[in-house]
Amino acid sequence: MNVDIHPSWKPYLETEFNKPYFNQLANYVKREYKSHACFPPGNQIFNAFNACSFDDVKVVIIGQDPYHGMGQANGLCFSVNDGIAHPPSLMNIFKEIEADMGIPYPKSGNLLRWANQGVLLLNATLTVRANQAGSHQNKGWETFTDAVIKLISDKKESNIVFLLWGGYAKKKSKLINNTNHHVLTSGHPSPLSANRGYWFGNKHFSKTNSLLEQAALPPILW
């Protein structure tokens, strides 16, 4: 596995890349990509970091697993490539933005436009075998991405907005210094959670922008 990552992250993550668990993880991912169809494409595994440099991070959204359908995953959580049908969770995210911010529902489900504004779209697991949800969980990715969350919390002085959606993401709150940073939680945007009333109306997008503006930072154009 080629760790193709924006130079701004390297001073902070170099020690992580040199740990035995990461070496084992890299070997596992290489084997998986050789013997099975896996997503996202190999050159997009670290897309979240390349699209949003360490210096630019203002908001962190934590997902669980890449999409496992053909052509969907592009290395950014909840995001799909242009021209790909929007998965249900992404549809509910866009519906909440529409209700919260009055922004029309977008044609493209590619969230690169968010990443380029300082939104780190981080899945806990960065790879997956085709059509097998969760197939690369508990292989070392979570150790790495937990280290990333803690790193951002520790090394960024203040005012990062962490959006934790659903039970899995909420568990990551223990890695975050909520005295220095902002943690917003809600149910997951998946239909199961959203249809029970745990997602819609959370207003996380306007709340995030309000917190950024209070810190004299530009809001996100959602």
- Termini Cα gap: 32 Å
The secondary-structure class comes to alpha/beta
Strand content: 5-15%
**What is the H-and-E element order?**
HHEHEHHEEHEHEHH
Topology overview:
Blueprint: H1 10-17, H2 20-35, E1 38-39, H3 47-51, E2 59-63, H4 88-101, H5 112-115, E3 119-123, E4 128-129, H6 141-155, E5 161-165, H7 166-170, E6 182-186, H8 191-194, H9 204-214
Parallel strand pairs: 2-3, 2-5, 5-6
Antiparallel strand pairs: 1-4
What attributes characterize this protein structure?
222 residues, alpha/beta, four-stranded parallel β-sheet, two-stranded antiparallel ribbon, 9 helices
Walkthrough of the structure:
With 222 residues, the chain is of the alpha/beta class. Helices cover 37% and strands 11% of the residues. The chain has helices spanning 10-17, 20-35, 47-51, 88-101, 112-115, 141-155, 166-170, 191-194, 204-214, and strands spanning 38-39, 59-63, 119-123, 128-129, 161-165, 182-186. The strands form two sheets. A four-stranded parallel sheet has the order 3-2-5-6. A two-stranded antiparallel ribbon has the order 1-4.
Write a short abstract of this structure.
This protein is an alpha/beta fold and 222 residues long. It is built from nine helices and six strands; from the N terminus they run H-H-E-H-E-H-H-E-E-H-E-H-E-H-H.
